[in-house]
């Protein structure tokens, strides 16, 4: 995998807002009585107690690091790589300009599909975090799995998840050109474990050539929101999809993040 060359002109540069905190809602209770005294406690004292907000949890850098999955969480023969290596993973098959002529509502749909490819290449599928952010990479043969934990603005994060949900229809199949070479890209929805507050799963397939030979890159992509924070999984390669490992990463990773935000130590990884 190689780093994308810079361009003077891009169809779309992803620019999603990012933010900071996970906040739980204030306590509420419908069982009170107006203007009453109960065993010497005034209604105003009771109301004040009810309105005390529950503790908030801010994802720290150490917390994000602790929430990262391990090799045991995804089983198989995955090997963890150095962080610096994972940070520089970029697949050249994702480089290219979307062919606008493939779309009925050309510019709008083409922009969404270009944004998808760009964000996959740049590893910022949900936008750039403004809070804590950590990643970890794993390799197995010609397949790679990149796992990220980060803090975002709640509204921007949900907007990004909603946008991902539109892509199987907007970008079901399209063409990308790069240096005279054409590639066919397909996007479908995949199911994920029902974890977190919201989630989206996609399978992105790119058919082209690598080293002069026909090649197909298959990536399973998953994103799960937990409050203002999220985990993102991108797994696959030229060997095909890595659906089982993606499912395991989502299941185990979401629970690890929830434990960290609750001030608990994540449960040991499965044997």
TrEMBL record:
The keyword Signal applies. Keywords: Signal. Residues 39-59, 245-255 have a biased composition (Polar residues). Residues 29-60, 235-271 are annotated as: Disordered. Residues 1-28 form the signal peptide. This is Lipoprotein.
